[in-house]
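Example 3.2
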Amino acid sequence: MPNTKKERLIFAFITVIITVPCFIFYCLSIENGGILNVDPHFALILIPIEFVLAYLSEVFLGSPLSLKLALKAMPPKEHKPMIVETAIICATVCIMCPWMSFLATILYKGIFPGLVFKDITFTLSKFFIYFIPNFLQTFILNFPFALLSQLFFIQPLTRKIFKRIFKK
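Structure, written as tokens:
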């Protein structure tokens, strides 16, 4: 769909505008035991922070790598455009979900959740005991939501908006 650098930046912008609020409310509802327990003020504080992190990650990490991976696995000359687009979406989720889950673990749970503030010394054992399990849990809970929402909701909506902006 996007052909030029400007179009790719706009496409990423549209994707992130839709994705970030969905994931913030999803992650906060998991953290707080349901969507009704989410503090909307906290969510509104996180949206600009995550938007910047997600947009920069998408532009510099997710989009270039996923395009290379998907086009290598599904060359456009050999496969239908729908299959190639689906491969790009799946590759993007496989790159962005672990990275954004890592950032979400830091934003939502802190680097070392459960530690007493008196003991702020960094040790490798604390990292493995607190951060790694929280990151893995966040990633495992986010991946199915990321894949399904990108395939069936976010990317179709993004493509529809993009086509309206760039009528050819």
